[in-house]
Every structure is written in C-alpha cells, then in structure tokens.
Amino acid sequence: MKIAVVGIGLIGGSMALDIKTAFENVEVIGVDKNEKNAKKAKDLNLIDAIGELKDLQNADVVIVSVPVDVSIKVLSEVLDHVGENTLVLDTGSTKEKICESVKNHTKRRNYLAAHPIAGTEFSGPEAAIQDLYRGKTMIVCEVEKTAFKLQEIAFEIFQKLGMRIRYMDPHSHDKHIAYVSHLSHISAFMLGKTVLEKEKNEKDIFDLAGSGFASTVRLAKSSPAMWSPIFQQNKENVLETLTEYIQNLNEFKNLIEQDNFKKLYEEMENTNHIKNVLNGIN
Amino acid sequence: MKIAVVGIGLIGGSMALDIKTAFENVEVIGVDKNEKNAKKAKDLNLIDAIGELKDLQNADVVIVSVPVDVSIKVLSEVLDHVGENTLVLDTGSTKEKICESVKNHTKRRNYLAAHPIAGTEFSGPEAAIQDLYRGKTMIVCEVEKTAFKLQEIAFEIFQKLGMRIRYMDPHSHDKHIAYVSHLSHISAFMLGKTVLEKEKNEKDIFDLAGSGFASTVRLAKSSPAMWSPIFQQNKENVLETLTEYIQNLNEFKNLIEQDNFKKLYEEMENTNHIKNVLNGIN
Fold first, then answer.
1. Which strand ranges, in their side-by-side order, compose the sheet holding A27-31?
2. Which domains, and CATH codes, for chain B?
3. Which of residues 151 through 190 in chain B touch A, CB cutoff 8 A?
4. Which residue of B has its CA nearest to A249?
5. What is the pLDDT of residues B91-135, one digit of tens each?
C-alpha cells in the first residue's frame, strides 16, 4: 500500500507510524512545504521518502494533516493530483468550511472528511508517537459523499488503528467540537496568560504550582499555527461557547462577592457530575 | 512515634501511609467526626485505631487535615488537648485566616502552618495513596513561631516523605496560591458547567471529548466541601485572579470578533512560554 502524508507532524506522522505497523508492504511518502520538517520525518523513519504533489498520482491513500487554513487551499490541489482510485482524507478539527471547499470538485468522491479525537499538546514530526489513535474516536462527516470502495479502505485503516467511528454532519461537528475541544484550549491559554502576567511581578510563583495547575493549563502549550485558523474557521461556534463560559465565570464571581457560599457549593456539586461523563476518557 | 490524624481523607490518609512506611514503630490514631470515614480509614489500614480529641494528649504529632473552615474551629481545640511536646500541623490550602485563628493560643509554639502542594481530584479515605508527597513542595508559614524542637520533627517527616520545603508568610502564600491553584479549580469547574449545560440539550456531546478536554476539566471533580471554604477564606485574592482571568478571556473573545487572528496568534505564542515553567511539574 502506498501512503502519502501531506503535512508530517504529530497527527500525520503518528498515523503513518501506525499504518506501517498494521499493514504489510507499506510505503510512505511525505509531502511538506517545510523542508526541515520533511527531513526530520525521514530521519525519524515516519516516512520512507520525501515527495511532491505530483507524486500523489500513484498513492492509494493520501492523508492531509495540515493546519485547517492550509487544508482549505491544499485539499483541492491534492484532489487535482491524485489518481481515480486514490482515497484522500483530512484530519482537521473543523469540518464545515473544509467540506465546503471541495464540494464541487470533480473528485469529491475520492475525499473522506475525518477528524480523529486524538492528539497531545506537542506538534511537529518529533511529536509523532505509536498508538496515538488506539481506543480513540474518528469522526467522519458526509460519508455518503465518498465512493463506497474508498470508504471501505478508510474504515479498514481506522479499525486496524483501534478507532471507533462516529458519523456526523459537518455543521453539528463544528458546533459540538467547539464545546468539548476548542473552548478547553482557550480556557487553558488564558489561564496560562493570567498566571504568566502575574509572574512578571512576583517571582517564584511557579514553584508553588502543582499537578492540578499543570493539568488545567496543559493545552496552553499547543501550537498557535494550528489553533489560530481553527478559531477563525469555527468563529461563530467558538464565540458562543466563550460567551457562555465567561457568563458562568461572572456568575461564580458574583456568588463569591455576595458571600453566597451555599449556592457556590451547589454549583460545584452539580458540576461534579462531570465525573460520570469523563469515565472512559483518558 | 504516635501520630494522630484529625480528618482522615486523601491528604491526612496519604500522609499517614507514608509516615508508616518511613518510620519504625508508628502508631496512627484517626479522629474524624464522620464515623463512616473513620471506620473506612481503619478498614483500609490508614489508621490503627479510632480516637477522640482527648487522645491527642499523648500524640507526638497531630496532623489536622480537614476543610479550611473546620480547621479554623478545630485547630484551637486540638491545641487545647495536646501535650507540651506535641507537634500540631495543618495542611490547609489557605494560611492567613488559619494562622490568625491560633495566634494568641498559649500553645502557638506547638503549631506549624503547612500546605503540601500535592493532591488529586479525589477525596475521602479511599482516595489516600502511597507516595503522594514524593518530589512535591511543602510550604511552611511563620516557621519562627514554632518551637525549634518541633520544627526539627516536622522537617524530618517532610524530608523522609521526599518533599522540598519553601518558607513564606501567610499573606504571600494566599496571594500566590490563588493564581496557581485556586483559579485553576474555578476555571475547570466553569468549563465543566458550560459543557454540561450544553449536554442537556445535545446528547452524546461527550463521545466527542478527548484527552485534552479531560485534562482541562479534571479539577471539576474536586470536593465542594473542601473548595467552597477555600474560596471563602481567600475571597479577596481569588476575586482578583478571577477578574484578571475574565478580562483576558474577554480580550481573546474581542480579537476573534474583530478577526484579528494575527494578534490572537501572538497571544497564544506568548503563552506557549508556559512550557518552560511547567517543566518539572507533573
């Protein structure tokens, strides 16, 4: 099987690693406009060779794993270059604008819109790890628009990587993912900012930080090149979640100001229910 | 060595476990107004016997690990009951009001104000674990007000538990800890609330949640009985951090509304610096 990965970082690189393990006779070509990244990916054995868009003609599967603003530009080009039987999938954290960008492409049926709910706060080829996808969810959008035979190839890959599949329309995907993914990143980034600003004046503050702070702020290490375009493409939904989050924080602040600690207790007790829904996520 | 733990939960229970391992001939008495908790602690072998305040007379060390509102009431009572050579330490996440509560007590020199920067989001005796304190920081306040011989006992325990010690005044402690601990809890609780509220209307939203969300919202599982009194006692500092946090969130929101994604990128890039300060925290 001939795989091409366009954008060799954490997501594409980890997927290449797992496909190499799960299938026999896999050859992986890496396409990356950042030459350093491509070379690093080669050195790390994530890919077997460095290629260009014109090499996609003979690929069985092309994985497009670039920031979502780049996806919108590059996905059509990729489809222009691939063969009649090549499966193209993207892995972006937004789906509506990306699906929109190729909806009239003559090779639309070669494309599968996908979003793996997996990752770490790190990025680049050196962040790629084995088994990143095991036990995780792959969201697939507009499955009916992909050629049946190519769906089969995609699902065999996802299954061998240990993923469960959920089908959604792109609009619902972007709405829901704003709550359970995009908002967490903003919450962490601004927590990091608030504490860093304080640190400027008060030295040694981080000596007092424990595992709770580290966990809550972890996503503030994430790549701006990946996240800025996500917030842009999912602007409307992200603003909705952010408005609700700020409103809840203001209400919590009011309760403290009014010394209403009985209500504050209840608020936290109600939210403890998150225990049940987090079971099974790690 | 005779140890008494007043309030047998995650913090006191874990400390009892480690002291038993680190020292020979340790006997641990548990004092808890919740009989179920005390019995559970006995069943779990965190303590050797269930006792009462009057039994503290003969203890070498008393660890007061109760919610901070209870500390303020019970710490003076504990000091009333202990012997001349008993070390009493508390483990509360606020220090100014607790130190204030015993400043005129005739046995003030028996007391050491401490705060271990360690814990998990779980609570109760069943949450107690071995080695919770290894490699963690113990903040000690007003060390000069504790009898020298009792300081020595405390530092021997902390050292054997694998902790490093940092000295602070209670006022600075409460101010700094609001940033690196108390604010993270509010941020997580309100993130949990925002997403749970959405879930009421939109089923299955949590199927889409990944490890990033789980990490950011983890502290929302924390005990309201522990955290409501902390927010109350550290009201002023917590309100300050919360005001700054909400302001930063509003500014981030404005940048998205104004399509200023260049500045948004820079904001995130600046905050990526958190990577460096988080090194060594796990």
1. A49-50, A27-31, A2-6, A61-64, A87-90, A111-116, A137-141, A164-168
2. 2-168 (3.40.50.720), 173-278 (1.10.3660.10)
3. 166, 175-177, 179-181, 183-190
4. B190
5. 999 999 999 999 999 999 999 999 999 998 899 999 999 999 999
